[in-house]
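Sequence, please.
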């Protein structure tokens, strides 16, 4: 309970899965946590979980694709806690597998608005707040599919490639001002998103699992641990980096 004592962290997409696990993990390390997401009941449950272990936090309803809401998220963080040291920009959505020629503009806009514009807007408002107190650490959630590709989900793949580009560019621009910007690249993680993606098809689930040489899909807590490390002093010389946490998925 010492690494982040006195520090403040924002976690977007904090209503479930990786975001919830990360919010709890930051609180365990002593950070005060601002949980952001679109689902109020689930967000408040995340806050309850981190408070149950002695942590401090609040929930701020936020659609990261809306500039006014992201701006308000950071403003409320500063009003409540007076600083921002860490941001885990984790909000994202999946794309239903569909043949490329059948994909529509609505799907493109929805995926890119959340997965790319959401990260861009988050950093746009987080960075000025961090600069007020000398810097901070930003971690963006990309994907193993930010490095490789998969047919049928081209828009999702493109969005996760874009997150890596945003991460690297921001890291170059703000490195000398004390802000480190890195990305985490998970493979398949056992979250609600995966449950929606895989459905009840046992054979498909087995095929997905088999893509991971480690013999299983990942856990939300394992991604949260990576976010903690990238946010901590132990990674003080790491910026502009894309950290694969993928069970060997891309090593094949």
């Amino acid at each position: 309970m010492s690494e982040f004592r006195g520090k403040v962290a924002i976690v977007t997409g904090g209503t479930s899965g990786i975001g919830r696990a990360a919010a709890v993990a930051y609180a365990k390390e002593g950070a005060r946590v601002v949980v952001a997401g679109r689902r109020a009941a689930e967000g408040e449950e995340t806050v309850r979980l981190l408070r149950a272990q002695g942590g401090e936090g609040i929930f701020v309803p936020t659609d990261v694709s809306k500039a006014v809401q992201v701006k308000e998220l950071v403003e409320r963080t500063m009003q409540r806690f007076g600083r921002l040291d860490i941001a885990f920009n984790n909000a994202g959505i999946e794309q239903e597998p569909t043949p490329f020629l059948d994909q529509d503009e609505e799907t493109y806009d929805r995926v890119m608005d959340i997965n790319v514009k959401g990260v861009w807007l988050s950093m746009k408002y987080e960075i000025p707040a961090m600069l007020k107190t000398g810097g901070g650490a930003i971690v963006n959630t990309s994907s193993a599919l930010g490095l490789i590709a998969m047919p049928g989900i081209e828009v999702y793949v493109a969005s996760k490639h874009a997150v890596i580009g945003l991460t690297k560019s921001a890291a170059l621009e703000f490195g000398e001002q004390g802000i480190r910007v890195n990305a985490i690249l998970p493979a398949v993680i056992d979250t609600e998103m995966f449950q929606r993606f895989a459905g009840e098809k046992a054979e498909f689930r087995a095929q997905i699992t088999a893509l991971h040489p480690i013999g299983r899909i990942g856990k939300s807590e394992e991604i949260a641990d990576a976010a903690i490390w990238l946010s901590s002093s132990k990674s003080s010389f790491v910026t502009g980096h894309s950290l694969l946490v993928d069970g060997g998925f891309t090593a094949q």
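The mean pLDDT is 96.
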